[in-house]
Every structure is written in structure tokens, then in C-alpha cells.
Amino acid sequence: MSKSTISIIGIVFIAMICAISNIETLHNIILGTYRWHSVQPETVEGGLELLVVFLIFCALLLTKLNRYAAIIIFVAVAGLYLQRNQVLLPALTALAYIEGIIIIGSKLKCLFKAKNTEDPARSLEYYLNSFLVGITLWSTLALILSFLGLGSFNTLRVLTVVLVVGAIFPLRSYKLPLSVYLLGKSAQISKSAQVGFSFVSVMLLMQFAKTNRALDYDSIWYGLRPEKVLVGAHSFFDQLGLVMIVHYYPKLFEFFSIPLSDLGEYSFNSSLNVILFGLLLILVFVFLRRVSSHARINTALIAILASTPAIANMASTAKMDLFTAFFIIMGTYYLWKWFEEKDNAFICYSLAGFCLSLGGKISSFMYVPLIVFGFFVYFLYVNRKNRRNAQSGSHPVNIPVNKKWNSISIVVLSMAVFVILSIVYRTYKLTGYPLYPILGSLWSKLGFQIKYPLMGSSDDFVLNEKKELLTHWMKIIFDPTGYTHYIMVWPGNYSLLLLVAVFVIVLFQLKKREKMRSLVLFLVFSPVFISTLYYITTFPQGGDGNYYIVAIIFCVLASAFVINKGKSNLQKAILLSLLMFLPVQSFVTLISHFSWSWGTSAFAMNFTQSNFESETTKATTLRNEGLENIELYLKESKDIENCIGVVDKDGTEIVLNQLACRFEDYGHVASRFGNPELLNSKEAVLKYLQFAQTRYAIISKNAVQPNDSAFMSVVDELAANNITTRVEDSNYYLLDFHQQFSQVKK
Predict the structure, then answer these.
(1) Any stretches that span the bilayer, and where are they (predicted)?
(2) Partners of 727 in the β-ladder
């Protein structure tokens, strides 16, 4: 069989995979799980509005309109869209915050006269590097203030303003903002790139709009209320008396979001994640340009990532997934550059990125070692190749060699190490373990002791279940119906197409000598891929789709490296197939979310609505739940007090988490997310209430509690105390213990 025939067969096979994947997605996800969501006004009208904005963007960039006029209209249309969805001010504030961090980093590089600081092109990598430098400096100074007991919300906001103003002046050291740079470049790139830029811009606008109404459980649990569950009266290191494990994860992202938190609107906090989503796409684009020269495929791959529900829809939450992924990818990018350019400054930036990622999602403690191990394997491969080449007299493969160290890179790495050690110190100070809740048995064996009121062994959080593998993987790829946490943040199924394309190219289009070279990134990322396959296979229902963001991006990068070496006819087929995924996948992103909300908003020609709607929405939610009087009573206290409550049904606690107190619910405290031993006896309950200085108990009038409940016995006894105040509401009652437990210091 000739090579041309094989190529045709490969193209047909790729087209079949594309068709089957999209048809199954349409049938099982859009017309299956999300059938009802697909026809709601927020989806239909919100989707049409986004489509119109996309067409306007394309028309502006593709026509011969004056460059500056096109940019002004582009910005005006985006601004009107954001204002109509009541998120213009939060979006601009989050953008200004990130631009400020970039300016801070740029200024520090200027002070150290870092290489490329005066680069007139102001490349994208320059801005990404400045962000790394800036956030590392900001985090270092903010943590120092917290160590000194000066880490309040207002103090950290003042710190941010002082740093940004100091970085901007004198004006001669000021650099063009990243957003302005991107808009300027958008008028100079190719037509296909302009369409891609328009598409990505619309996906970002979609996520900004979602921040106004998509409130997921986890975000309300901890991400959107740092003023209650992260920072105390003095700092990030204060003991708040909380029990649930989510409050003791690495908290660098929540700490970084403090200047945008507690502003009377949840969208300020969530918009920060949308900007980080944009930065992540820029970073992957820069990485793609390094491993692939095929501009159109690179653009299509960025569009694919921008429309992947598991990635895009995490932008409109307050979770740390995108923050973690960004710094993992940044660390990986600089490690790759270190191998290519032999500049030891890159190893410092790589390690700095990895350090910051460890302050995000706890899964980074798995990803980072696996990535480093993958590069170590690649290093061994290169060394072995060099020895063989030396023996045969061939030209050796390039490997990193020592060069003069860059002072700014060493400073950044030193600060990043300080930052992650501070994050670990917080966990140790509050829990007694360097990391919590993972590796509990290991810490105990090493002599660490868990601190009250937490539960010592938490290793049961590694979950798995037995399943029929073929059926399971068919559901993962084509029909995740019933896999609740996988389908609500779906990772997509285009990875199958990419892997098939890689298989065809390597097997049929590359010479023997080129095959291994083309698979270098697959070799480097193989530990991550293997672990991902293992966890998707063993986790109940495949786990949460957002667990696999890093693996998805690595698959795109490694595949692009191989596709770049393929024949042009196959590359065209791959490009067309990738474009076929965009309409279907984008619609899934529109109708799905981590909160199970759908669409953006029903269309209304109202551009004067307030950007501060969260308080109104929260008040309505609390009123509907029968908590209005209790909320008014709680707001009378100037301080945020600890509160424990009993709800009538599972899931209702998401409402009570929005009360003006530091709330934890009985059900979670008594579960593996808390410490059941705290509620085993009346003595244990009293000890915990005293330790946490609990002031309030909020009890549902419809709650069904066992007669021998130690907690309710204590509550009833305290309710009979003359000091205790009782506040009645329609569905709940509140007991105010006043200062009965205040004499016990935390």
C-alpha cells in the first residue's frame, strides 16, 4: 500500500473520529443531560447575543476599517456587553489588578536591569514573566505583613496600590499594559488569527457574564468568603476555630484574591479567575509557538482549549484550578526553554512557577514531581543519545550547559520559596501537619501531631471504585451521562482525535529517525498522562472533570509538536476536524457549569443596572430560606463571629454559608470533611464550642435529629440559660450565646 493511500485512510479515520465524537456529544450531552438547559432564555438569548458579538468582532478586525477606530469599537462593544450583564466594574477592577501585578514585576526587572527589559517588541512572554515576578513580590510582601500581624484586607489593598503607583512612576519606566498591547497586535496578525482572537474574546466575555449568576457550592463554601474563613482580625495566620478540611488546603490563590474580595459583589472575586483564564491561554499560545510553527493549527488549538468546559467554566468560579494550572504550565514552559536555550535563568523561573503552583490546588503536589521526573527521564535519554552519537562521530543532541546566573531570576526563586514555605507554615501552625488533609499517616510516623479540633488521619480521601473498564471509558469519551461531577465540567473528547492524528503521523508519515524525536513531549509528559489515566479509571464516575486540566493542556502541546511534523494534507484534515469541534463544544460550555447553572442571561436592553447585585440576590435567597430576621440580627454585630448550624436537608448549608457569620454546618462537621469526634459527647461538644468561641447556633425548625444527639442536648441546655438570646425566623431560630465561650482563647 502506497504512502498516499495510507494518508488518505488516515484522513478518513480522523474525519470519522471527529464526526462520531461530535454526534455523540450532541446526542448524549446537549440533547441528553442538558436538553432542558439548552432551551432556556438564558441559553438561547444569551447564546445569540454572544454570536452577534463574535460576528461584530470578526467584522471589525477583518474589514479595512481604520485600526484605531476598530479597536475603539471593539472595546465599546465588549464594555456594553459587560455592562448589560452587570459585570463591567468587576471585570475592569480584576483587569486593573492583574495589570498592576504585571507592572510591579516589570518595575522590579527594570531595577535589576534584567535581560530583555527594554525589549521594544514587548513580547507576550515578557508580560507573562513580569506577572510571575510581580505576583511573587506581592505575595512575599503581603505574607511578611501577615507575619507582623498587619495582614488585614485594607492593609493588603493599600500595599497593592502603593506597589502599583511606585512601579508606574517615574513614567519613563512605565510599560504598555498587556490589554493595550493585545488590542494593538490584534490589528496586525493574520486573518485566521484575528478570527481566533475574536472567538477567545467572546469566550472570556461569556465567563465574565457567568460570574453574575453562576454560584457554585465550593466557591460559596470557601472561595467567596475569605473575610470569614481565611483571614482573621490580624492576618492570614490567625486561628479561626474552623473544622472542615477545605479551610486548610494551600491558600495562596485565595490570599492573592483578597484585594478583590469583600467588595459587596461576588463578581469581583470571580472575575480575577476570568483574567487568569486569559493569561493561561496566552501562556499556552506562547508554548505552542515554541513547539509548533503551524500558526493556524496553533490558533485552532487555543480556541479548542478556550471552549473546553472543564477549563473555561472554572473561570467563573472562585476555585483555584486555573491559578494552579497557570503556574504548572509556566514552570513546565521554562523548564523546556532551559533544555532548548541553555540559560540557567530559566531553571529559576521554572522552579519559581512550580513553587507558586504548590500554593494552589493540592493536586499540584502530585503534578509537579511527575513533571520533574518526566524531564529527568528526557535528560537521561538525551545523555544516552549523546554518548551514542559521540561513539559514532555524529553531532550530539543539545543539552543544557551552565551559564552565568541571572540575579533577578535568583531573587524571584528565593521569594517563591519563601512564599510556599509560608503557605506550608500556615498549614502547620493551624493543623500540626505540613500538608492537610493528605498524607496524614506519613506525618504521624514522622512525629507530627494533629492539632485540635482537626481529625488526625485523612487518608481515606483517596477514593476508588470497581467498574467495568470498557464501559467506563466509553462513557468517559462519548457519554458521561450519570457521571455527575465529570459531565458538569466536561473535559471534552477531542483528545481522542489528537491522539489518533499523532498515531497516524508517527506510524505512517515520519522516518524512523524522526519518530522518537517527535514523541519527546509525550515522553516528558508520560508520568502525568499515566497518572491521569489511572485516576480517571479508579475515581468514582471518573472524578471531577476539572481535575484533568493540566493533562488536557499537555496533550494539546505534545500533539501539536507531532502534528507540526506531519504532511500538509493531513494537517489540513486535522485543522478542519478541530474547527468542527468548536460549535458543539462551545455550546456545551454555554449550557453547563460547576454550579449546574446554564447560559448567561436573558436579553434585555438595560445598560443602567447596578454592578452590585450579589447583596440583593443573597438577601432574596436568605428571605426565601426563612433566614431574613437572623441575617439582620447577625449584621448588628461589628465582628464576624463563629456559628454552627443544623439544616433541614443536605445542600441547604450553601445558603447559610452566605450569612454574616463564620458558619459551619453540623452535617459536615460530623462527616469525613470535619471531625465526628467533636460531637460524640456533651463534653466534646462543649469543648469544641469553647475552643472555637462559638457565639451562634442556627437550627432548622424542620431538622430531624436523633433523640440522643449530644450536640442538640448541649444546645437545649444553653438555650435554657438566661444569658442566651433566641431569635425566631420562619424556618430557623438562632441562639446567641453572647460571650459564654469568649474566655477561652484560641
Answers:
(1) 7-30, 50-80, 87-106, 126-148, 155-172, 192-209, 270-288, 318-336, 366-384, 405-425, 487-508, 520-539, 545-563, 575-596
(2) 734
pLDDT in the model for residue 441:
85
For residue 379, the model assigns a pLDDT of 86
Q: Residue 214: name the closest of 585, 29, 488 by CA.
A: 488
- Cell digits of residue 570: 493531513
Angle value at C-alpha 512, between 510 and 517, nearest 5 degrees: 75
Q: What is the pLDDT of residue 402?
A: 53
Calculate the alpha carbon distances from 256 to 107, 129, 589, 629 in Å: 19, 17, 27, 34
Distance CA 226, CA 221 (A): 10
Q: Which set of grid coordinates corresponds to residue 67?
A: 485600526
Residue found under cell 510581580? 134
Pairing of strands 732-736, 694-700: antiparallel
State the pLDDT at residue 552: 97
What confidence tens digit (pLDDT) does each residue in 248-285 have?
999 999 999 999 998 989 999 999 999 999 999 999 99
3-class SS at 640? Answer: coil
pLDDT at 407 over 70: yes
The 3-state secondary structure of 541-605 reads: HHCCHHHHHHHHHHHHHHHHHHHCCCCHHHHHHHHHHHHHHHHHHHHHHHHCCCCCCCCCCCCCC
| Rg, the chain, Cα only | 27
DSSP assignment of 494-539 equals HHHHHHHHHHHHHHHTS-HHHHHHHTHHHHHHHHHHHHHHHHHHHS
Residue with the three cell numbers 508517527: 506
Per DSSP, the residues of 188-249 read TS-HHHHHHHHHHHHHHHHHHHHTTT---HHIIIIIT-HHHHT--SS-TT------SGGGGS
Supply the pTM of this predicted model.
0.95
Distances (CA, A) of 587 to 353, 402, 556, 675: 33, 49, 21, 42
| Residue 491, preceding peptide bond in cis (omega within 30° of 0) | no
Q: How many CB atoms lie within 10 A of CB 632?
A: 14
pLDDT at residue 458 greater than cutoff 60: no
- CA-CA-CA-CA torsion sign (543, 547, 549, 550): negative
Residue 674 confidence class, pLDDT cut points 50, 70, 90: very high
With b for 16 or more beta-carbon neighbours within 10 A and e for fewer, the 157-194 pattern comes to bebbeebbeebbeeeeeebebbbebbbeebbeeeeebb
Instruction: Kindly provide the b/e burial profile for residues 403-412, where b requires at least 16 CB atoms within 10 angstroms of the residue's own CB.
Output: eeebebbebb
Residues in the chain: 746
Rounded CA-CA distance 71/655 in Å is 42
Q: Which residues contact 597 (CB under 8 A, 6 or more apart)?
A: 210, 213, 214, 215
In this prediction, residue 343 carries a pLDDT of: 84
At 487-506, the pLDDT tens digits run 999 999 999 999 999 999 99
Residue 485 and residue 651: Cα distance in Å, rounded? 15
Q: Per-residue pLDDT averaged across 515-521, rounded? A: 88
Confidence of residue 40 (pLDDT cuts 50, 70, 90): very high
Q: What is the pLDDT of residues 692-715, one digit of tens each?
A: 999 999 999 987 665 558 999 998
- What pLDDT is recorded for position 119? 44
Mean pLDDT of 177-182: 93
d(CA 471, CA 484): 16
Q: Cell 493528605 identifies what position? A: 438
Residue (of 181, 47, 170) closest to 592 by Cα position: 47
**CA-based angle 727:732:733, to the nearest 5?**
25
